[in-house]
Design a protein that fits this description.
Blueprint (H helix, E strand, L loop, with lengths): L2 E4 L7 H12 L7 E4 L1 H5 L6 H19 L5 E5 L28 E8 L4 E3 L4 E3 L4 H11 L9 H9 L6 E3 L6 E2 L5 E5 L11 E3 L10 E5 L1
Antiparallel strand pairs: 1-9, 2-3, 3-11, 4-9, 4-11, 5-8, 5-10, 6-7
Helix pairs in contact: 1-3
């Protein structure tokens, strides 16, 4: 299995955590993301017991991942960077993609507030480089002729540009939602991996929507 979920019903007011963070930033619509550590969480001027309970849960989850030897990041996210120049195949986290590593690894994540990640079942996804029209366009971008399609240099080009990590959803496919509070462990792509990597994407924050609170490692 390439994704495992620990469902949880969380107590605490994580919306208050996000509201306090955005008040401290001074701009509720500011783009980008804000990383947080335990000291910053402890210093937040929470107004209610529910808000303080949410802070304690965030710290405890962060510590548990650290105890597993992981390096988690807790972020309040308004937006992620996008491709500076839109290309044939999008390579930002808003497109369907898999995580990759050079050694055995996986990704852990939990959304506490805001929009959540989505995933695609393996049979519902196709690599962009395996879509004939996209592959032909990428070959043209690479500057090779038809005889270069299986050339090692072309395949290395696809890999270096991360094109081989991004996917399209097949017609009629229905994504699954990671949900609020659930802890996910999803498979990454690495040499010798026994299972296919989990195809997923980050949600887009629409104007007026609150920021997202995410723990990821």
């Amino acid at each position: 299995m390439n994704a495992f979920c620990w469902p949880r019903e969380l107590s605490g007011d994580f919306g208050e955590v996000v509201a306090v963070l955005e008040e401290l930033r001074g701009d509720r619509e500011a783009a980008g993301l804000q990383g947080l550590d335990e000291a910053q969480l402890r210093a937040l001027p929470m107004r209610t017991e529910a808000g303080r309970a949410a802070v304690e849960i965030l710290i405890e989850d962060w510590r548990r991942l650290r105890e597993l030897g992981l390096e988690p990041n807790l972020d309040c996210i308004r937006s992620y960077p996008r491709d500076e120049v839109p290309g044939i195949v999008p390579t930002d986290v808003y497109s369907w993609h898999v995580d990759s590593a050079t050694v055995e690894a996986d990704t852990w994540l939990c959304t506490y507030f805001g929009a959540t990640s989505e995933g695609l079942r393996q049979e519902d996804a196709i690599r962009c480089v395996d879509v004939p029209e996209l592959r032909a366009a990428l070959l043209g971008e690479f500057g090779g002729g038809a005889d270069a399609e299986d050339d090692l240099d072309f395949r290395e080009y696809l890999h270096e540009c991360c094109y081989d990590l991004h996917y399209d959803a097949r017609p009629g496919s229905v994504p699954f939602v990671f949900g609020i509070g659930n802890f996910w462990r999803i498979a990454a792509e690495y040499p010798g991996s026994p299972v296919p990597a989990c195809v997923h994407r980050a949600p887009e924050n629409e104007p007026g929507e609150p920021a997202r609170l995410l723990l990821i490692s």
